[in-house]
Amino acid sequence: xxxxxKEIAGHKLFxxxxxxxxxxxxxxxKSVEYSVCLGDTLDLSAERWARIxxxxxxxxxxxxxxxxxxxxxxxxxHGLRREILEGLREAARGTWQQKARRxxxxxxxxxxxxRTKALRLLELEPGSSNEEIESAFRKAARKHHPDVGGDPKExxxxxxxxxxxxxxxxxxxxxxx
Length: 177
Description:
The chain has helices at residues 46-55, 64-77, 86-93, 97-108, 114-121, 130-144, 152-166; strands spanning 2-8, 11-24, 29-39. By secondary structure, it is α+β, with helices and mostly antiparallel strands.
């Protein structure tokens, strides 16, 4: 994960990015960058940080503590005031989570939990082994990969489902809730 800026129409915008490598089209590894725009300042409230991270399918599962480490390094490297990160620090401490947790619980009432959705997406039974998860992932990835005409959103959902079921850090909502 890293932070970068882009100059657009004379305005400097901050982007939180994560790069992912995978797949080989016979020409070497491919790298994909997922990013979310933070706006023209890093001085955001805890609620705004939560809205940005939870509102992005690529970042909703990223721990605010991990984001804080990356952004603190950026602020230090570029000589920015450390006070601008107070909202992110509050988000990382979790003081905003009470409200976010209540909202998330009400949103999930009557819906399947993420693990069940991931199992269904990969056509797996509960209690499937890591090998079965990887095998189902490869089968689904071959079918839905954008390079073979698949839907990029569906492929991303398949990658997230595999990561969630294998307990990898990227999709772990436990980091936020």
